[in-house]
Amino acid sequence: MNKRGYGMLVIVIVAIIVIALLVVGVGIGNTGKATLGQETKGANYGPIDDDYRNYINCVYVGVNDGWDVSKIGEVKFLSMVRGVVEREKDKCASDSVVHEYNCEDGLRKERNVNCPLRQVCEEGICVNQ
């Protein structure tokens, strides 16, 4: 086999390995699915960011908090943008808005959620003032 043929073989093998790692989720476990009905009563939910298809194999780290902004949640997922496993934790986007992360059908989704009336965001959750 000449150098060109050997180089193509190496490229094909590397491509197969990368695809296999993506399919098995680089060992981050089974995909998570949000529990419906875990939204917080009185909270105002913004739209889900459109880029969620870039973040696959999403699983909860600890408790599945769904879209409940009264509980802190953390997710782990494979970023197709960066090619690495990442983690994100619910956080405050402002004094009264939580930036919430969720796993749905194995995809990491995120959105801003306005806290219910007379609540503020502290350490990634909505609490009474």
In short:
The chain is of the alpha+beta class and 129 residues long.
Q: What does the average pLDDT come to?
A: 82
Q: What structural category do the secondary elements indicate?
A: alpha+beta
Helix and strand pattern = HEEEEEEEEE
Note the overall shape: elongated
First-to-last CA distance: 73 Å
Number of strands: 9
Strand order of the largest sheet: 1-7-6-5
Low-confidence stretches: 17-36
Biggest sheet: strands, sense, closure? 4 strands, antiparallel
Helix content: 10-25%
The total of helices stands at 1
The count of domains is 1
**How large, in whole angstroms, is the Cα Rg?**
19 Å
Percent of residues in β-strands: 35-45%
Summary tags:
129 residues, alpha+beta, four-stranded antiparallel sheet, three-stranded antiparallel sheet, 1 helix, 9 strands, 17% helix, 37% strand, elongated
